[in-house]
Amino acid sequence: MTDDLFKESDIRGAVVLSNGQITFADCSQRKIIILNIDGTFAKSLSVTSGPFDITIISDKTVAISAIRAVQIIEIDSGNIIESIKTNGECQSIYNHFTKRMIICYVKSKGIQSIQFFDNTISTIVKARSESKSGSIFIAVQDENIFESRAEQHTITCYTLTGEKQWVFIN
């Protein structure tokens, strides 16, 4: 069953839930695909756009990056709990649990944060030149944001305040 499920897929992100299920952001089919820990199909959830990436919000919710929004989705029902508008295509997304904010890469805007308590959007790092293929991804560890740019073959480390720490060039 899972072979056919992924045949036309464009998986852009994945996260493992606390119950061991694996969720995949399938951009081409506009779905979140959920597999059990043994690889069997659990369910799929239809979404309105994207998803370009996915992050865990809680045991029962995930957030996806979409065309012009971050959408928080309840996993059991598939309902969109909240849709937070962004000023561009939200490509990569990460929930910073300890800081209570979502960090995302928004095309033409840069790396931005969205505060959970009031949905305030702030730019951490302004966009540099845009990638033609759209291959810009972020990862977050403690106080650092790592930006990967496939076309430039670079990884840049920034602090949560946007200060550049280092650049790795391959």
From TrEMBL:
Top-rank lineage group of the source organism: Eukaryota
Cross-referenced SUPFAM superfamilies: Calcium-dependent phosphotriesterase
Entry-linked Gene3D superfamilies: TolB, C-terminal domain (2.120.10.30)
Name of the protein in question: Uncharacterized protein
The organism of origin for this protein: Mytilus galloprovincialis
